[in-house]
Amino acid sequence: xxxxxxxxxxxxxxxxxxxxxxxxNLSPYxxxxxxxxxxxxxxxxxxxxxxxxxxxxxxxxxxxxASEEELIKMWEGLGYYNRVRNIRKxxxxxxxxxxxxxxxxxxxxxxxxxxxxxTVGAILSFAFQQKEPAVDANVLRVMARYxxxxxxxxxxxxxxxxxxxxxxxxxxxxxxxxxxxxxxxGANICGRSPQCFRCPLKGGCVGFTLGIADALPLKKKRKEAxxxxxxxxxxxxxxxxxxxxxxxxxxxxxxxxxxxxxxSDTSQxxxxxxxxxxxxxxxxxxxxxxxxxxxxxxFPSLWETISMLxxxxxxxxxxxxxxxLPFTSGHKRxxxxxLKENFYECPTY
Length: 349
Hints:
Blueprint: H1 5-16, H2 28-38, H3 43-56, H4 60-65, H5 68-75, H6 82-97, H7 106-110, H8 117-127, H9 137-146, H10 156-169, H11 175-188, H12 206-210, E1 226-237, E2 240-245, E3 256-257, E4 259-262, H13 267-274, E5 279-283, E6 287-291, E7 294-304, E8 314-318, H14 329-338
Parallel strand pairs: 1-7
Antiparallel strand pairs: 1-2, 1-4, 2-3, 2-8, 5-7, 6-7
Helix pairs in contact: 1-11, 2-3, 2-8, 8-11, 9-10, 9-11
């Protein structure tokens, strides 16, 4: 009797799957946290974050008690900070409505803040072994090629179609292995440049048979990144630095930065008006970082002052406390540079 493609995938997955900490000691909570971390982030990067998180917040109750600032600091470097804000909201929701447990019902899970169809599918499939699709970008790519779908992949119609096709592909026995296998296949074999010769599904794959796997899935033209250039003013008074926290509700809200302004020939006039006694010290290394279709290039400089003037939405922070604050990634690199220097009390001129 011929082996089904889903069984071929199962055998391949059990043999080739990568070892990750979230695949051990499976629980709904561990699945939930790992899947949120893995969104828009490479698995190799997530490993250390996941292990630190589980050590500090081993359950929903400990997570729900944590402050937003504390969680953002733990998340620092993973980006897309709304993810961690929603994790906290969902933890409070589970504690309030489900006695600190994650429910095994799709309808109940979808009511929790920040849980979309993919995350809900992953929890139901991996943690509860239910026959529920968890369709992420990897699965969309694999199924579009496997079924030879020649329609634009981001359309709701096509995504609903792939959800249904995935549901049909999942067997009744151990559907979670097949579901995770599809994701693993998309990550390791059926990537942007498919390695069809290694694929356990190539025999039944329409894209491979027709020689069009490379051309699928069909995508809209990518939005070009917006480039921003900013002057950054690292203001120091002895062992204290002036820090600005971005308001909640803004992009990267809740994170800390040094003072910055759009780069121009008159940028230095801004800081001289803001802090009249500030004196230029030196330029620091340029830094670059990106977020949501933006590339930001930073031009930092170090300035000294002898008085710690109070300013709205800013505070003076002792250098030993700086590492306890959550910074945007580019400003975190600036921070790393300045902390290599020696610090003294406020200079006199």
